[in-house]
């Protein structure tokens, strides 16, 4: 699932034809990097790919002042169909992506066991800082948010809170984890 594809196609339906700089400004204005996996820099590449796939079409070229000419793109009928499919798929797929840290924590390196508690402490501090910053940012932008955007951002708050709780449990269990790993015999050897 590509969130950037959803954003580009949906933005053209909602706002009409745009050139890349306008799309980037819209992404900045909507703070999509705060609540999606979209990076503003990825938009130009996505526009080129979507056009190459026939989901977008250049409708005109504009030039302002001494700036280079800009190609204004619009969504095609094929693009509208793709948007409908992407949107439906995004709503239909339920699940969590595996987090590589789970494997690293479940299979700690024997020569790094003494560092486990400090690693967990550092991770917990970073997660708490992210939660604090996110909560402050949410409060600062709250007046500009739609109901759906507000709820989407609280989803991030909930996920960060869950990560804090998980890391607190791991940190509390660190001595038992280290003791278990030092005495564990691998049944596969």
UniProtKB/TrEMBL annotation:
SUPFAM superfamilies: Winged helix' DNA-binding domain (SSF46785)
Database matches in Pfam families: PadR
Domain Transcription regulator PadR N-terminal, first and last residues per copy: 11-85
Cited PANTHER family: TRANSCRIPTIONAL REGULATOR YQJI
Listed name of the protein: PadR family transcriptional regulator
Origin organism lineage: Bacteria, Bacillati, Actinomycetota, Actinomycetes, Micrococcales
């Amino acid at each position: 699932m590509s969130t950037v594809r959803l954003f580009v196609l949906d933005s053209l339906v909602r706002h009409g034809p745009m050139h890349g700089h306008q799309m980037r400004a819209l992404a900045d204005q909507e703070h999509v990097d705060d609540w999606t996996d979209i990076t503003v820099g990825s938009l130009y590449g996505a526009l080129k790919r979507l056009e190459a796939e026939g989901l977008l079409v250049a409708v005109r070229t504009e030039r302002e002042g001494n700036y280079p000419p800009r190609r204004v793109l619009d969504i095609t009928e094929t693009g509208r169909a793709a948007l409908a499919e992407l949107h439906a798929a995004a709503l239909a797929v339920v699940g969590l992506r595996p987090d590589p840290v789970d494997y690293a924590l479940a299979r700690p390196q024997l020569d790094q066991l003494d560092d486990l508690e400090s690693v967990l402490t550092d991770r917990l501090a970073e997660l708490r800082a992210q939660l604090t910053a996110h909560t402050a940012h949410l409060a600062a932008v709250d007046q500009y948010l739609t109901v759906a955007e507000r709820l989407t951002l609280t989803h991030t708050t909930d996920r960060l809170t869950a990560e804090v709780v998980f890391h607190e449990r791991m940190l509390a269990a660190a001595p038992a984890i280290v003791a278990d790993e030092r005495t564990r015999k691998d049944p596969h050897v």
